[in-house]
């Protein structure tokens, strides 16, 4: 398994099997163009117990052009319909002059803050902020010029698979690595907003891990926490989900974002799931050992005189487990008692005549 490690305000952080799941709160446009709200999101994310906050770095003009031609009109997703791409991104983008301040603030809270650049100018800008890793979003998997520039930073990259075919994903990763990227983690992602449980295809997670021999995770656009927790059980080492202070505030991503209390519950559920995975172990575990006594064993259930034969009437397999194991029952029946035995005595080899 290829290692994946990043620098954090708390030191080097290893991400992968056997390590705590790396949990990312995606701010996206949920700040509603308010710097104060963005800061509050970081505060709430820290209180929820996440590891990182993710931004998106673009402007309306770096991601598209201002045109109302039919090509640029949004006709999918009820929350986005009725506007052009430029209009959507005008309300959704994160002002670039916030990035440095938000990064410093997040790091003061012990969180990693990184971003998803949507064009090469965004990468150039993020490099001035000395970010420690990059995200490639699912729609950008096919943007080879962008991937080349991200690879040239020689920083670790988390890439969302999204709609990418196997060939497209292979080319994206090859492009990143050929241009200097040292480590790539792949997130399974369904690029639907929101994504329905029936569309999640979480079995992709172990398949990606096997095919690419890399750290895997989930970028989750579904409602609630079920998919994310299930993903951890299937091997996800990274979970990314949208974070909002209140869905009642609305906004392009509100419908599939979690509020602070919900995100905290998600974090706790993920931590429970990763602990519950444990290890492969047959036999009684540490906490089970004390309950072995409640297994069945062979007991004398009627008074037996010395020299008397053991029969199904006077020997039974019952709880608790102080006597011989039940697997010896056939060997015991027909043998004779080595001494007088009172009812409710656990049977032992010393009580059986040789």
Task: Tell me the series of helices and strands, N- to C-terminal.
Answer: EEEHEHHHEHEHEHEHEHEHEEHE
Would you identify the CATH H-level superfamily of the largest domain?
Answer: Aldolase class I
Annotation field: number of helices: 11
CATH architecture of the largest domain: Alpha-Beta Barrel
The geometry reads as elongated
Total number of distinct structural domains = 2
Task: Assign a percent range to the helix content.
Answer: 25-40%
Structural class: alpha/beta
Q: What fold name stands as the CATH topology of the largest domain?
A: TIM Barrel
Quick synopsis:
It holds the Pfam family NeuB. The chain has 354 residues and is α/β, with parallel strands linked by helices.
Model description:
This protein has 354 residues and is α/β, with parallel strands linked by helices. The chain folds into two domains: 12-58 and 93-277, TIM Barrel; 289-351, Alpha-Beta Complex (Type Iii Antifreeze Protein Isoform Hplc 12), CATH 3.90.1210.10. It is 31% helix and 17% strand. The chain contains eleven helices and 13 strands. It has helices at 35-48, 60-63, 85-92, 96-108, 120-128, 144-152, 166-178, 204-212, 226-233, 260-277, 329-332, and strands at 4-8, 11-15, 22-26, 52-57, 112-117, 134-136, 157-160, 184-189, 216-220, 238-242, 297-300, 315-318, 345-346. The strands form three sheets. An eight-stranded parallel sheet has the order 5-4-3-10-9-8-7-6. A three-stranded antiparallel sheet has the order 12-11-13, with no helix packed on it. It has a two-stranded antiparallel ribbon with strand order 1-2. Helix 6 packs parallel to helix 7 and helix 9 packs parallel to helix 10 (260-277). The chain starts with a strand and ends in an 8-residue tail after the last strand. 38% of the residues are buried. The mean pLDDT is 94.
